[in-house]
Structure formats: structure tokens, C-alpha cells
Amino acid sequence: WIREHPLQATCYAVGGGMMLFPLAAATPVLGAVGFGAAGPVAGSLASAAQSIWAPVASGGLFATLQSAAMGGYGAAIVAGTVQAAS
């Protein structure tokens, strides 16, 4: 079945991986847009968004994504969102 349907098999595997390991899927994406373990990365999309949205609201989207990148309360929210989307 896998050889006959490689795209479908890949989608099932990726979706299953995202369900089982949602932060493994989300962490590289957060890092790619500039949400780092020590805060927004200078010169990144995240730092540009922070300067536009300043002051950042506690519990808002930006704060939650940054918290997820730092392993805080946002990690559970992002993990649940990834699982729901997969």
C-alpha cells in the first residue's frame, strides 16, 4: 500500500508524528520566525512584530508564542493547536 500511495502514506506519517510529538513540529517553526529560547531573535520576524505590537499584551498571541519557544505556559497551548490542526 505504501509503494502504491507514497504521498498519502507520507501525510499519514507526518500527521501521526505531529499528533504524538507536537512540539517537535512546532519548535523549528517558532525558531524560523525568530522566537528563541532566550527571547525574540534580533532582526527576525518575531522582533519586527514585537516592535509593531509594543507593548506586548500578557497572554496575547505574541506572548504565548514566545512562551512556547521558551518552554513556558505557551508550550501546552501551541502543542494543543498543532495536534488539533494535524
UniProtKB/TrEMBL annotation:
Keywords: Membrane, Transmembrane, Transmembrane helix. It is a multi-pass membrane protein. InterPro entries: IFI6/IFI27-like, IFI6/IFI27-like_sf. It is found in: Membrane. Pfam families: Ifi-6-16. GO terms for cellular component: membrane. Belongs to the IFI6/IFI27 family. This is Uncharacterized protein. It comes from Aplosporella prunicola CBS 121167. The lineage of its organism: Eukaryota, Fungi, Dikarya, Ascomycota, Pezizomycotina.
